[in-house]
Amino acid sequence: MKYYEKLSNTYLSHFCRRLADLINEQGSEIIAEMKLDTPSTAISTVLFLDKIKTSTVANLAVELGVSHQMATQRINALEKLKLVTRQSSPLDKRAKFVMLTQKGQTEVTKLIPFTIKMNQAFNGLESELACELTQFIRKAEIALLKTPLKQRIN
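^ thats the sequence. predicted structure below, dont judge the formating
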């Protein structure tokens, strides 16, 4: 038995990271097979931009529940792939708006079938586990935001 298999729930973040990494790794494999350019970690960003058409990075961070730094990293990666572009606001040159390029919009049409298949796969996983895993993880996050670990330890 490997060391990590003996770890207690004290190491919950270790197991959550392993699961997230496994999902991203396996999702990335499927993305490559489907000849998609969007990194698995940026699919929500691309689909959000498709929905609202234009956004600032700060708004993206808030709407996706990630740090400003994480949102910036995702946008930078998507910009290198020519899936998004940034444009200055006509009212405030300091403000930059992010939007999908034509290539990004084409990517969305390929991403939608991928997300449907992933949803089906995760529904099957949840049935197999007899647990609404996504909702459970979300409830854990909300509970820790309400009562942080520091309070729980004291």
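The chain has one domain: 37-153.
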